[in-house]
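We give this protein:

***
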Amino acid sequence: MRRNRWLVQAIVLLALFVLPSCWLATPRSSTPSSPPTVSVSPSLPVLPPSPSPSPLSSPPSPSPLSPPPSVNSDHLLQHLQALNFQRYTTDDRAHARAYLAQTLASFGWQPEAQSFNAGVNLVARQVDSEPTKGKILVTAHYDTVRGSLGADDNASAIAAILELARLFAANHSTARSLQFALFDQEETGLRGSLAFVADAANLAQVEGVINLDMLGYACYIPGCQQYPKGLPVTPPSFQGDFIAVVGDQEHLPLLHAFQTQAEQGHLPSVLTLPVPLKGLLTPDLLRSDHAPFWAKNIGAVLVSDTANFRNPHYHQPSDTPDTIDPAFLTGVTQRIVNVVQGLLNSQASLATPMEADHIN
């Protein structure tokens, strides 16, 4: 199989244009037939007025040997409330994007709008970051389906990214640099992430991707957690009290970074799932913005509360902030912070060692 890996990647790329968007979602018919063209604007376009975020001070930059910074639950909830509106129409999404750009800039990040033929992605880089450093890219989509306020899908993940941006704002002394990409039009066929990976400049020095898609819903009644058919692991629980992390088998060290965090009992437990053949045999695991990176053979993980396999408000008007479990969202975000700090402080390869790669 190693000799034919190019064929597998080609098939996976084809699958991305056939499969609908959104992790573990029901099928939709609006997938694009080819990667959208990208145009990068050096500065943000003029956007509709957005409420200015309240000042959230950035903590001192952690040193490589210091413990991970602590997540502030109040900040997460503030972002959820600020994004408590439908992000479906062009104006809605521009309104959300203005809030995101203003908040990132207030933390000292440099936001850049990247337009494509269906929308606008927002990329945030650290000011004066070294361009030759390897990058850890954290991603999430900011759009919603029509008629949903999208608190879990996907304001929960956007709130987590904004908290990471605050905590790592001045983090320049690490072995790797940190970057964020906030994707438009995920809900209409992964169009934002497909446009992003179509531009080779966006992928320069990217060594690992952490894609966040729905982080804030938990359920504690036995039977409230369902699973997709053909899952290649034994389900740990039929309660939705864990966070799932899905990664490609060719980049297991990236997935294992989340496994090493699993012993912290005060945080939500972690289910890690290594996926062979870039998800070709498990198409339910290709429905979020990590999938285009897999097709480019870039290591990526999906972090998710499993969406409609747990959350009854998925793609519904009832996906509102009051359905979010604040303690769960805070704990999941803390796990992500812990992993990100470890990856930034390391130069170890995130590719699976050949002797550990069972795809022969």
